[in-house]
Amino acid sequence: MMNPKWRRWAILRVLTSLELTIACLATMIVLVFLCTLAQVHLGIFEAVKLYIRSFFVYWPVFGSTIKIPIMPGGALVGLVLLVNLVCAQWARLELSWRKVGLWLVHLGLMLLFGGEFVSGMFQIETQMPIEEGQTTNYSESLTQFEMVLVDRSHPEYDDVISIPDARLQKRGVINDHTLPVTIVVKKYYLNSSVAIKHQPQTAEATMGVGVGMDIQEAPAITTDDRINEPSALVEIQKDGITVGVWWLSTALGAPQSVSIGTKSYQLALRQRRYYLPFSLTLKDFRHDVYPGTDIPKNFSSLVRLRDRKQGENRDVLIYMNHPLRYAGRAFFQASFGKEDTLSVLQVVENPGWLIPYIACVLVTLGLAAHFYLFWRHHWTARSA
Amino acid sequence: MDGKVGMKKMIPWLPAVLGMVLVAAGFLPHRPASGVDLTPFADLPVLQGGRVKPLDTVARAALLMIHGKQKIRRGNKEILAVHWLLDAFARPELSDRDKIFLIHDPDLLGMMGKTQESGKDYSFTDLAPFFYEIEEQNNRALAIEAPRRTRFQSAVVNLSERITLYQRLKNTLQIEGADDFPSELRSYEAALGPGLMAVQAHMKSVKFDRRALDILQHFFSRYRFLAEAGYFKNLPPSSGDHPEAWSNTGEGLVALLGAEGLHPGIADYAQMLWAWRYDRFGEFNRALGRWRAWMETRHAGSLRRSSHEAWFNRVRPFYNGMILYLGVFLLIMGSWLIQPQVLRQAAWRLLVVACAVHTAGLLARIFLQGRPPVTNLYSSAVFIGWIAVVAGGILEKFYRNGLGSGVAAVIGFVTLLIAHHLAASQGDTMEMMRAVLDSNFWLSTHVVAITIGYGLMYLAGALAHVYIFREIFSFSFNEQARQTLTRMTYGVVGLSLFFSFVGTVLGGIWADQSWGRFWGWDPKENGALLIVLWNALTLHARWGGFIRERGLMLMAVGGNIVTSWSWFGVNMLGIGLHSYGFMDKAFWWLTGFMISQAAVIVVGGIRRRRRPV
Q: What is the rounded distance in angstroms from the CA atom of residue A272 to the CA atom of residue A146?
């Protein structure tokens, strides 16, 4: 029989121990190194998901779907290190001026870890491609997609019904009382190639532009400079009767339309949109290069920010290292295209963006204080 | 007796004085093989790679990229870069026979029917019969992404780039093979009037002079080629609001002529090349003087800046610094065998001279570029060395045991050697900054802090080597020496943690400012994080008593591996937002260095079991 009191103490001893700190640091070194190597083949996003933003690193057994956890992932190590830090702080480190540096360092580190968790959980990164003269009130995800049914009958606004890609991946029947129709997802490709059919075959789609298209599944993109082009084969039913079967794909461009009774809907698979409570109009995009080369010297977007609720209506210049921060989001100059008439803004929503700044100030002050005290002590000891 | 005492006093000063003489020698004007001082020509500013630089820099960078050296040998004569470039412009039949194309890849040699025994140096003329084959193989290789190319494919692409660069250089100031470009220009000017009249008449559909039009078209097609091929732009705008709008000779010739006629630079350059071609050195200097006078009246600032840079190129502070550091190291080695006091003092004084030269070079670059010290991989090597030397010098000042000087000299020498080789792959070491990196504030805070962290890591690693090897080989490694070394290493590791951490988080803040992500797990960021984690691990293990003195030393040697991975290794992954460019050759050196460090750790670790301390 184990003594519960003893066990409690043992756990506490382990949690406050320096051995645990060292084990966590060593594991973290291994994880960060493996994550860097894996980026060559998986791309940053997947490699980080595998090693850092996970509780366990799994090893898939060949030829089966079984995955064996082989080592703790970054999230677990980070959590344990955080607990270790908090426990050790209270249990071992004396509260004295001599240790003030270490207190600040550890407090800052706790905040830094906390901030990374907040980012991991809540940060949303999207992009807003915007052409000169165009006004936009949404940004698009690079990793998530949605199937939409758009009712455009109202003159003032559009009614958008969105089905996230996570649901589409499960395939099967989507039936909900808020939906005007029943949707049967027959196929869903994470990435696909779309080509015009050369010889007529039996078409999977019965309606829309997809009838004449040859749509094949393609391996998922792992590099960071390209995105997936998913495709879905969906059947639309109304009151148990098939209206038609459509191929939907981000590669197909313009939305297709479907008529249900007297109403007409637009049907599309697109990058997931995040709507903003305000709008941006691109007035001018500038892109300068160094003379006689194509090395970019600077990019900048002059946008008009309009927010009716706040009464904001002003020009903003977004350029390298100078984002627009507004309403909890930050807009960065990310890319450009179409012979310098299209600007791509990176839109980041992160409620914890300020945490690392505070954490860094604390740790820096703490390290400086600690080393100052250490050297002073060391120096007096030497000259004595 | 007096003389002997005087000698004794002088010896510690001798190496320092010799070092200063070596540096001062670089200030003397160079008399090249031709007997003509090419300095005024080398100073001439041109626009290339987005910035105005002297022809001297263009020549050195091009020769480094093609040949891997800043000089060539022709017969038993040594030819300077700018002399070679002038020959390529004016006497290509001479420079075509210079064996400047170094080819290492055995498969590439094999493709041309050569073996490694038949030599590695080839001239343009030697390679000419294989151009078709090289071109075809190059096109195949270009279809493959650079990191996925085989060694042969990389070698073909590299050779093809070098040949193209040489060809473009030859067709920058005049069309290759022009025997008398000045008189061609005169015929062109004469043909312009009738030709342009014919063009106008043709456009109005009235009768026109077909022959005049054909002549003009013939010239135009030649000069359009020149405009395309030109490697740099030699003609600054004669007036106007756009001081950056330089053009090359071809562009100047096909530009629709204003009231001023042809750009005076076209004729002056043509005259210089013609005079050089026919050994009319007096005429060469007159044309050069005319052009410099024109520049002086309109672009005095450019001319002054480019002559400063050319001067900096000639003085070669980092190359001299490298030699001086080697001297310091030899003196320290000597001090272990004979005359410890005298030689240590001599080493210290030479170290001060070497560091002063290094510092002067660093400051000169900051002044020439108008940038903080670290802007690319090359300058990071120079700066890492400088930090380690300064920190080693401070340690020497405190402990006076020769160790600070010794490790400072080794790191200074090695980092400057790395910089020297990086310059060969990079060409121009002061290239412009890409938009995202173009921020002096972040370059001077984040980049400098990170680089200081690297420098201190190497210093700690070098001190640890001293500890490990003294323990193995030396009997005089007493308790006090051991404690001193431990204190030195421990302090440097702590300081390195501070700078690495501050640098890493400043990088995070920069990233947050520029693309909204405090931390993106990008390879370069991960590399910096590894250094921070490694230092934290070392210090915690020491505090907890899990490692003792020798353990600290072994961890510090491990720090060399981690730092090298972060500094060079991650660049070889060829991904990420911070990429400096891919270096194949450096890969083997890096691997070798890491293995050697691992071996040192093993050797140091084995000793521990035999004789526990």
A: 5
